[in-house]
Structure formats: structure tokens, C-alpha cells
Amino acid sequence: MDFLQMVMATLGGSVVVLAALAFLGRSLTTQLLAREMEDLRSRLKVEGDSVLESLKAQLQHSARQEDRQFQLAQVMRHYQGPLLHAAYDLQSRLYNILARRFFDVYLVGGLPEQKHYAQYNTAFLIAQFFGWTEIIRQEVQFIEFEDTDRTRRLSELRDEIYGLWQSDRFDDPLMIWAGEQRGIGELMIDSSGGKLTCKGYANFLKSYGANQELLMTRLTCAVLASANAEASSHDRLIAIQHKLIDMMALLDPEGMRFRAAWRTKV
After folding, report:
1. DSSP string, 64-98
2. Residue 87 contacts residue 248 (beta carbons within 8 Å)
3. Rounded to the nearest 10 degrees, how much is the dihedral formed by the CA atoms of 179, 182, 187, 189?
4. Distance separating alpha carbons of residues 144 and 163, to the nearest angstrom
């Protein structure tokens, strides 16, 4: 074999080898790319599933929050009004006792039916306020506004009123312990209609006459004793009346139900 043939033979063999290597390289690259694409698809699927699960969890959480807020708003509308009316009725009676001699005119010097009404209706108004605060305690713990400061202040006022009723720093006989306040409130609750509500005056008298409750008896006796006490010993009732007016201002800030003229502090 001459030199030229040897070169051609050598080059020819190298070309075949190079061609074979090129083919194998392309095949290997294709396999590697296919494997990487499969891995990528797997990772994207896992990541996509994770993102979808996270988004689903966030949506479910938001839905639960919105549902809770809606339910809470419904409860607030159901109980905020009755608590406002109970606070108004009680502060109005306290105002009449303190500024217009309601006890002196009707409970001390009135006719028998006037004395009965003055004593028992006053006890009812106190019990009614305890009833609605106890219902709210059982149902929602406390009324919650969007404004957290209002929520906190209302909770503080409720506690302050409880504290004034049970405080022994006053010398009047109308002192009601915290446990008695809750007990009276529980006796005022009517759950017969499926929802908790507070007994009205007629049912209060009916149940009271049929079953002499110790707590109610003590309450009415305390009302009578307060009527016979010296006027200077009504500091407790003055303080409570002021707090009830403050509570009304939080529950009805724009005076939609009770205008400012009906919210006079003694």
C-alpha cells in the first residue's frame, strides 16, 4: 500500500469513527435532554401541586374568616340592640330615682300598687341588664367592633359596672355580688324559642310569683332597702348611671335609637 492509500485508509477509518461518535453523542444528548425534561416536568408538577394546595388552603382560610365575620355581625345585630335598650331602661330608672325622687314618691309614699311596681319593676330592670350581659357572655363572650378600641372600652365598661354593683366602698344597701349578678342573669334567660333571650316583665312576675328564687328575693329586698336609705348613700347608683350612659354612647354613637337628650348623667 502506497502512502496515499495509507492516508485515505487512515482518514476513512477516522471519519467512520467520528461519525459513529457523533451519532452516539447525539443519541446520548437526546436521552439526557429527555431525562432532564422529565425531571423538570416532575418538579413543576410537584411545585404546581404545592402552590395549588397552598392557594386552596389560603382560600379556605379566607372563606372561614369571612364566614366567621358574617356570623359575628349577625350575632352583634341580634344582641347589640337589646343590650342598648337594657342599658337605657336601667339608666333611665336610676336617673328618675336620683333626680326625680322616684323611690320617695312611689315606693315610700305611693299607693300599694305603685309601691309594688316601683319595687318589682326596678328589680326587673336591674335583672334584665344582668340577663342580657349574661346572654352575651354565653353566646359571644363580648361584642366585637371593627374598631378594637371600642371593643376594649365596652368590655371595660361592662366590668366596671359589675365592679360598682359589688363594691363594698359604698354605704348603700343595693350591693350585688358578682356571682349573684351572673346568677340573676341566668334566671332571666329564656331559651324556649331556640335562641337565648331575656324574660319580659310579665314573665318575670309570673316566674317570680310561682317560684320564689332566693336571688330575686334578695334583689327586691335590696331595692326596698335602698328606697329607705338616706339620699347621700346613692353614690353607687350615680356611678352606675354614668357608666350606663357611657355604654350607650359606644353602642349607639350617632344617637340613632336614643338621642342625646335622653342620655343625661345625674
Report:
1. HHHHHHHHHHHHHHHHHHHHHHHHHHHHHHHHHHH
2. yes
3. -170
4. 21
Neighbour count for residue 110 (Cβ, 10 Å): 17
Is the sign of the CA dihedral 33, 35, 41, 47 positive or negative? Answer: negative
Take residue 82 and report the three cell numbers written for it.
Answer: 337589646
Domain range summary for the chain, segments of one domain joined by +: 78-262
Q: How far apart are CA 57 and CA 37, in angstroms?
A: 30
CA distance 41 to 35: 10
| Residue with more model confidence, 103 or 27 | 103
The string of pLDDT tens digits covering residues 40-58 is: 777 777 777 777 778 788 8
CA distances from 9 to 1, 3, 6, 16, 238 (A): 10, 10, 5, 11, 121
- Taking the model in full, what pTM does it have? 0.73
Strand partners of residue 197: 190
